[in-house]
Write a structure and sequence with these properties.
It is a single chain. This protein is 28% helix and 22% strand. By secondary structure, it is of the alpha+beta class. It has 2 domains: 112 residues, Uridine Diphospho-n-acetylenolpyruvylglucosamine Reductase, domain 3, CATH 3.30.465.10; 209 residues, Vanillyl-alcohol Oxidase, Chain A, domain 3, CATH 3.40.462.20. A hairpin with a 4-residue loop joins β1 and β2. The chain starts with 17 loop residues before the first strand and ends in a 16-residue tail after the last helix. Bound molecules: flavin-adenine dinucleotide (FAD). Belongs to the oxygen-dependent FAD-linked oxidoreductase family.
């Protein structure tokens, strides 16, 4: 892990303006803006951004790391693909506006290279007309894991690009901030977002509802502005230990391996083991190429533990054991937004991007940040 001792933290919280232009279906946002503010402002004029699962993740940090939207990603690709320009203060103190014509190499690098090239103070991106949305969560008790995950495979096998689906093994603490039905027990949470009518959506997810009676079922027609309720991510800071990987496929043997490693019968302390279905437009090349190049994985696995600072030694082997169990189905690389402190070492970052993209990023880094001023991150050291 990279130590931030002696570093300067630049807080952009107050550069959080959001301006929507309905005529061009675009948004200009400040470097510290958060997703729910954009989602709400866009909804007022019938538009939807490629937002993530959490309402208070930063728009710019998310987008520079690729940005995988669990509602619109499979239909429209990565959020980084929809960026039109960024204003960035580079390490030489210059404020530059970069796009596909002005400093195209930097524009390529910053969309995927994240915080390595400077501070993005403002960014403009395109949005889509607000789609009809049939979404929510299905929560199942531990004894239904087998049939529900078999149904998950079935739904994925027939999923149109408008359907995004994921599941998570949740082991949430018996604490007042956790909804009562989730407290202190194992729960299987299936998340659904379908960009279409309720009638079509009902048909698509019918195998899940038929597999077992959910404890709670919130899947219904919903306003796009309420998307944060689909994953119901925590919104307060947590001391989390996390790691993820891509999966090429999710056959029955992989599901069995995951259940054996982290399912209800195990004593794992992990609070969440999540599998998101990717593919669709996320797997297609963008019109303006960027450093987001790992596009062929079908699934993304993400594993998280929460505990006091210093619990690294206890959690590290637990997290690793789940990744090891899934190794036969793992794909190379990682989603940059899900690259965590465990992977911030040079080998981890290089492996996440792959050598070609990494080397190109390193050459661009050398041009703009020869002294590696921006290095408390998933660092791309400047090429010599
Ligand atoms: C609950 C939760 C749900 C998530 N869901 C998704 C999801 O659905 N899809 C997805 O793709 N990701 C998701 N993520 C990952 C998320 O996109 C990354 O954690 C991202 O880094 C968050 O950015 P931030 O600005 O909120 O965080 P920060 O900690 O503020 O920023 C993280 C890093 O991003 C860079 N950065 C941020 N802002 C700027 C800027 N203005 N200029 C230059 N660099 C900047 C910096 O290197 C900074 O250290 C989720 C994260 C959480 C915590």
């Amino acid at each position: 892990m990279v130590s931030a001792d002696g570093a300067v933290l630049i807080n952009l919280r107050r550069i959080n303006d959001v301006s929507i232009d309905a005529g061009t279906s675009s948004a200009v946002v400040g470097g510290g803006s958060q997703w729910q503010d954009v989602v709400d402002a866009a909804a007022e004029v019938g538009l939807a951004p490629l937002a993530g699962s959490s309402p208070n993740v930063g728009v710019v940090g998310y987008t520079l790391g690729g940005g995988v939207s669990p509602t619109l990603g499979r239909a429209h690709g990565f959020a980084a693909d929809w960026v039109q320009w960024v204003e960035i203060v580079t390490p030489d103190g210059q404020l530059r506006r970069v796009d596909r014509d002005n400093e195209p190499e930097l524009f390529w690098a910053v969309r995927g290279g994240k915080g390595n090239f400077g501070v993005v103070t403002r960014m403009r991106f395109q949005m889509v007309p607000t789609p009809p949305l049939f979404g929510g969560g299905l929560y199942f008790a531990a004894e239904h894991v087998g049939p529900v995950l078999a149904a998950f495979q079935d739904v994925v096998a027939h999923a149109p690009d408008g359907l995004s689906i994921s599941f998570a093994f949740l082991r949430l603490p018996d604490a007042p901030f956790v909804p009562e039905f989730l407290r202190g027990r194992f729960t299987l949470h299936v998340r659904v977002a379908y960009l279409g009518s309720a009638a079509e959506g009902e048909k698509l997810i019918a195998p899940l509802r038929a597999a077992a009676p959910p404890m709670v079922d919130t899947v219904a027609e919903m306003p796009f502005a309420a998307i944060a309720g689909i994953h119901a991510d925590p919104v307060d800071p947590l001391p989390a230990y996390e790691r993820g990987t891509f999966l090429r496929e999710l056959p029955t043997a992989a599901i069995e391996a995951l259940v054996n490693a982290a399912g209800p019968e195990t004593g794992t302390p992990l609070v969440m083991v999540e599998v998101r279905h990717l593919g669709g437009a996320l797997a297609r090349p963008p019109s303006t190429p960027s450093a987001v190049l790992r596009r062929d994985a079908s699934f993304q696995l993400f594993v998280a533990a929460v505990g006091d600072p210093g619990m690294d030694e206890a959690f590290r082997p637990e997290i690793q054991s789940v990744l090891d169990a899934m190794r036969p189905w793992s794909a190379e690389g990682s989603q940059i937004n899900f690259l965590t402190a465990y992977d911030t070492n040079p080998e981890g970052v290089r492996a996440a991007y792959g050598p070609d993209v990494f080397d190109r990023l390193a050459r661009i880094k050398h041009r703009y940040d020869q002294g590696n001023m921006f290095r408390i991150n998933h660092n791309i050291a400047p090429a010599n």
